[in-house]
């Protein structure tokens, strides 16, 4: 192979920003064109560990959130073909982090079967093990970047409700043991959301589960109280569907707790009224910024096909 300029690889994102401006301002067409260039060179992503990590980071970023532009379902389906190949540099923790971030970013373009496959792959590494028992470890996957695994699972809105309930239980157990770490409180809110970001309301966890989770989150004390606003808002947000919504009395308790946390007025309104998400709130749900100009209109069509 030709000599590799390590600095050029590591600084690829910065080099692109010098030409295209801050990446948070890249438009959807620009992102998808960049994805096309990355996809054309995906066969060379395994040249070095840096190639692999940077490719995963940029490919996921340029295709996020996996839907919203023409041909996104096809693009996400093409990337999914790489899942069975896994990583070349499996001893690199940062590469595992980039790998799970890639799937979190494009999850909205994956179908039910693909999302369930992601869940089943990491579940043995996240599922609590009873004392005296051992958990079989999946082949080809390492227990690295667990925080990103958890964020990825929380982004799989097409999972069956029972899988979300199980994953939420893992997060709450970890939260009780390790404290209210940012990825855990965010994941509880995303898994128990009353109004999905892109999925169907039929796959939401049952209202009684969200009620229990909301009660536990209201009792959490955190040195970063602002981080509790997101999960509480998501768990108690008014959807207009009686089957999904928490009862009015509990929603009012959540609203009072949000006020104690000095939450923005908009967050409190979401618990009491039917309101649309602002761009900033969409970014908070997704976990990062969305492509400039992208408009999310309901559930993506033909995801994963």
Characterize the structure shown:
By secondary structure, the protein is an all-alpha fold. The protein is 54% helix and 0% strand. It has 15 helices and no strands. It has helices at 6-10, 12-20, 28-40, 49-63, 72-80, 93-106, 112-126, 146-154, 161-178, 182-191, 207-218, 229-236, 248-260, 265-272, 279-286. The longest helix has 18 residues, at 161-178. The two termini are 36 Å apart.
What would the keywords be for this entry?
single chain, mainly alpha, globular
Number of helices: 15
The end-to-end distance, rounded to whole angstroms, is 36 Å
Query: How would the global form be characterised?
Result: globular
Give the strand tally: 0
Pick out the low-confidence regions.
Answer: none
Major beta-sheet overview: none
The amount of helix comes to: 40-55%
Strand content: under 5%
The arrangement of helices and strands along the chain is HHHHHHHHHHHHHHH
Mean pLDDT: 93
Category by helix and strand content: mainly alpha
Return Rg in Å.
20 Å
Fold blueprint:
Layout: H1 6-10, H2 12-20, H3 28-40, H4 49-63, H5 72-80, H6 93-106, H7 112-126, H8 146-154, H9 161-178, H10 182-191, H11 207-218, H12 229-236, H13 248-260, H14 265-272, H15 279-286
């Amino acid at each position: 192979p030709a000599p590799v300029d390590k600095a050029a690889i590591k600084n690829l994102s910065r080099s692109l920003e010098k030409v295209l401006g801050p990446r948070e301002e890249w438009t959807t067409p620009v992102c998808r064109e960049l994805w096309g260039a990355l996809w054309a060179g995906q066969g060379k992503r395994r040249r070095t560990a840096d190639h692999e990590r940077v490719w995963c980071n940029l490919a996921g970023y340029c295709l996020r959130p996996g839907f919203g532009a023409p041909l996104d379902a096809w693009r996400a389906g093409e990337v999914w073909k790489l899942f069975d190949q896994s990583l070349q540099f499996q001893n690199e923790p940062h590469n595992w982090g980039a790998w799970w971030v890639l799937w979190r970013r494009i999850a909205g373009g994956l179908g039910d079967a693909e999302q369930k496959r992601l869940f089943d792959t990491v579940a043995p590494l996240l599922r609590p093990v009873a004392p005296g028992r051992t958990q079989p470890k999946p082949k080809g996957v390492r227990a690295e970047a667990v925080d990103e695994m958890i964020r990825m699972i929380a982004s799989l809105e097409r999972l069956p409700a029972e899988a979300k309930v199980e994953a939420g239980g893992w997060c709450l157990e970890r939260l009780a043991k390790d404290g209210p770490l940012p990825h855990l409180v965010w994941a509880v809110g995303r898994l128990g959301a009353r109004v999905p970001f892109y999925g169907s309301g039929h796959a939401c966890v049952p209202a009684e589960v969200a009620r229990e989770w909301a009660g536990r989150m209201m009792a959490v004390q955190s040195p970063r109280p602002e981080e509790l606003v997101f999960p509480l808002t998501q768990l108690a947000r008014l959807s207009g569907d009686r089957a999904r919504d928490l009862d009015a009395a509990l929603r009012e308790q959540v609203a009072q707790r949000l006020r104690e946390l000095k939450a923005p007025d908009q967050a409190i309104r979401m618990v009491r009224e039917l309101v649309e998400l602002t761009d900033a709130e969409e970014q908070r749900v997704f976990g990062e910024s969305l492509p400039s100009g992208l408009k999310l209109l309901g559930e993506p069509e033909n995801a994963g096909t």
